[in-house]
Amino acid sequence: MCRNITILRGLKPGATEEEIEAAARQYVRKVSGVQTLSASTSEPFERAVRAVHAATAQLLGSLPERRRTPSTTPPLRRLGERPS
């Protein structure tokens, strides 16, 4: 469904909070169909982003290490931002 969300498990160095949030935000945007936040969509949208972010961080923290790094680079790394 979300082909543009890159694999975060196995990154070297590991996925940052910003990368996890960006993936969560993209997922929520895709499934909700909300592209621009309004007064009526902002709070539920942001609540969903926080929930997906927390679930993603928990998932990544509980999975075993990957044998290979992902074949794609997360967008924040492609833009030249350095992971912390």
Report on the structure:
The protein has helices at residues 17-32, 42-62, 75-78. The chain has 84 residues and is mainly alpha-helical. It has a domain at 17-60. It is elongated and about 45 Å long.
Mean pLDDT: 87
Give the H and E element order: HHH
Beta-strand share of residues = under 5%
Structural class: mainly alpha
Total of DSSP H or I helical runs spanning 4+ residues: 3
**Ranges with pLDDT <50 over ≥5 residues?**
none
- What is the total tally of β strands? 0
Sketch the major β-sheet. none
Helicity range of the residues? 40-55%
Cα distance, first to last residue? 29 Å
Name the shape in a single word: elongated
Cα radius of gyration in angstroms? 14 Å
Question: Quick recap of the structure?
Answer:
The chain is mainly alpha-helical. It has a domain at 17-60.
Detail the topology: elements first, then pairings.
Blueprint: H1 17-32, H2 42-62, H3 75-78
Helix pairs in contact: 1-2
Question: Could you name the key traits of this structure?
Answer:
84 residues, mainly alpha, 0% strand, 49% helix
